[in-house]
Amino acid sequence: NPILNQKDFLEMSQLTPEQLADLLDLAGELKARMQAGFSDLPLKGKILGMIFEKNSTRTRVSFETGMLQLGGSAIFLSGHDTQLGRGEPISDTAQVLSEYVDGLMIRTHEHSRAQAVAEYASVPVINGLTDFEHPCQALADLLTIKEIKGELSGLKLAYIGDGNNVANSLLVAGALAGMHVVCATPAGYEPNKEAIEAAQSASIGTGAKVEIVHDPYEAAKNADVLYCDVWTSMGQELENEKRLTDFADYQVNDKLTACAKEDYLFMHCLPAHRGEEVAASVIDSAHSVVIKQAGNRLHAQKALLVDLMSTPRQA
Ligand code: CP
Ligand code: NVA
């Protein structure tokens, strides 16, 4: 039986707490089976089309290797090289690609563009990052915390910095998992209102606590996990200089980590800028789990691919 009841996976807020837990369990099982030497091929012969309108290292390689390991294959479609770069409508593109492939992944700017792909494609569509959400990242993040800490419920996760796509997804995911999620941002850089509301409504019934604050030290206090992302996301390059000033007090450094629990984990979705959002002494310390976290993108996404692509769905 499929875990997700929708054709597509675009937002963390579409999951119930049970669906999130089931996806993480499936990811853990797939990882354990692979590490034990089994090669299951549930997506034999299936093809994933991957549309990238922004750069990527992890997302591209983890989706492609995930498809290959599951018995299928993947096609990288750059926004520049396809007719999308010359203005072909996304609606035509989504319908045409659905004639060739069994699933689509899209990384793009406006979230509405990913929603349009989902609307016009007859095959499942996965959000590989939009300006609004990065839900595959949050799946991998929770998988990583669960592997190391054994559980999620009740842990305090402090996200420090820009209330961006990564923060939006993490806020909702943490709330679905019953965590205490605190997001500390400068004024004006809070997570998206819709994401905060989704996290708050997810917290009803899971025992989660969701807080948006401006003091990074308050957020980091007794945290089990300290998480940060870049201050300037893809597409915001022109704001870089202003952001360096606005976020100057939000670096995750030794002074800040001193407030966290002694066995805190440091997490970052990568790519990272040492000396900006995180000090080298933190990201390169024994507390940092960023490489394991990046590795878990593969396993979390394989669970998603198996769930969405191995059973036929109604559009
Ligand atoms: N974290 C993440 O999505 O990395 P890429 O931009 O390299 O895909
Ligand atoms: N917030 C970052 C994440 C990159 C993986 C961005 O959107 O550029």
From TrEMBL:
Location of this chain's protein in the cell: Cytoplasm
SUPFAM superfamilies cross-referenced by the UniProt entry: Aspartate/ornithine carbamoyltransferase
Major location category of this protein: cytoplasm
Annotated positions binding carbamoyl phosphate: S56, T57, R58, T59, Q83, R107, H134, P135, C136, Q137, C269, L270, R297
GO molecular function: amino acid binding; ornithine carbamoyltransferase activity
Enzyme class: transferase
Binding residues annotated for L-ornithine, in chain numbering: N165, D229, S233, M234
Superkingdom field: Bacteria
Xref: InterPro entries: Asp/Orn_carbamoyltranf_P-bd (IPR006132), Asp/Orn_carbamoylTrfase (IPR006130), Asp/Orn_carbamoylTrfase_sf (IPR036901), Asp_carbamoyltransf_Asp/Orn-bd (IPR006131), Orn/put_carbamltrans (IPR002292), OTCase_ArgI (IPR024904)
Cited function: Reversibly catalyzes the transfer of the carbamoyl group from carbamoyl phosphate (CP) to the N(epsilon) atom of ornithine (ORN) to produce L-citrulline.
Annotated HAMAP family: OTCase
Protein name: Ornithine carbamoyltransferase
Higher taxonomy: Bacteria, Bacillati, Bacillota, Bacilli, Bacillales
